[in-house]
Amino acid sequence: MKKLLKLAWAFALAGTLCFTAGAKDYPATDFGAKADGQTLNTAAIQAAIDYISTHGGGRLVFEGGDFVTGSIYIKSDVTLHIEAGARILGSLNPWDYVRDVDAKWTSLIFSIRQKNIGITGKGEIDGRGFLVATKGVDYCHMGLIEDPLKLDRLQESKRPENLHFFQCENIVIKDITLRDPASWNQQYDQCRGILVDGVKVDAKSYWNNDGIDIVDSSDVIIRNCDFDAADDVYCFKSHNRNGVSENILVENCRGRSSANGIKFGTYTLGKFKNFRFKNVYIYDTFRSAITIATVDGAQIEDVEIDGVRSINTGNPIFIRTGSRRAGENPYMKNIVIKNVYAEVPFDKPDAGYMYEGPVEDLPRNVCPSGIQGIPGMPIENLTLENIEIVYPGKADPAYAYCGTTKAELEAIPELEESYPEFSNWKELPAWGFYIRHATNLVMKNVKISVKDVDYRPAIVADDVDGLSFQGVKIVQDNAPKGKKQIITNNVKKFKNRK
Hints:
- The protein is built from 4 helices and 32 strands.
- It is mostly beta strands.
- Strands 25-26-28-29-27 form a 5-stranded parallel beta barrel.
- The mean pLDDT is 94.
């Protein structure tokens, strides 16, 4: 399987790179674009792209200065090359942006059903999204734009992303900096053959500022990137019941978020398979370092996460099945998470950032990692190996309490139709791992420790068929003598080998 994946990625990468060799360069200024930070260059840039695409392809080069534009469309065989010292700036006028009829989103840079396209160079794309979005809110107050959500912000799809690629093939996004989108930052929807390499993302100035969204797309490499996002960093979605996301590699990346680090969901309609994550660093992240959730009917399988370092993150691991859509039967199976080190703080991990995660309803002590299926939809064949997690402790039963008797455990709500977040349950009965509705779960060489007093046991397992602990080490120096650290209820075939 891994050899086949490597071969598929090699073909994808070769396809994305071959079209750049020997490409002719065309300076944007030759088509009348002005780098003065004032002139609206939408028409000039689009004319240049159209010309290059119909004359054998090549690179449209932005050599220096600030090029202001509204929505533009990259066409086949065209690469935008933004040199160091050059910036593409989003117009500050919301009316200069298009909500594409096919993509059904608004964006600064689009590409719709094109091939052999890219954006390269050491320059920047700055959507100036905070200013664009707040102007959009002003227009809502004036009655010029409809605001159906009534949240004093426009829906995500009506605010411009920086990049939106829809049903495209062979995409290279390399070395550029992406700043300040008004919505999601870069979305690849139903695309094939994507390389995102050496990209820096600074997307933390408005709502829904994801780092990168891969939607029903295949043969994807994301590597050597640095993300700072207000919303999820690496976000994998499916908007289509027949959609498939497969052959995805994320490696040698770092990211921060006021939501999640690695995130499957929340829209999960289709299939996800053959995902690999290697050497990922996550820091100052409000929710989970790793969230894998299928709540809309998706089938998730064959995911390997190898090498995650998570520092100052609200929750290390959250794995969830759910049923937000009646009649759907999602499943999740064959997941391996290994070589992880995580530190969970007692205080809010993203405090001080411009758009922080919400203050959770209280009372609530620090939550454990969660492996939480639902009745009839267990999490299947999950392996956790070489994991070390340091928790803060300080849970106080007088502040918030959740017991571990059979009746108390079975009274914990399922929340099958809820948005999948680890904090939904407020108080959970373990400080390390809470496991519910799983089959064939292996924990091998797992060490969990707690710094301060915590009244709860380390691990609670409820309704598990096949549970194997191999070298699970629990460290709680201040625990009362004889405290039971592992609580099981309705667990079959439990093996605990030191």
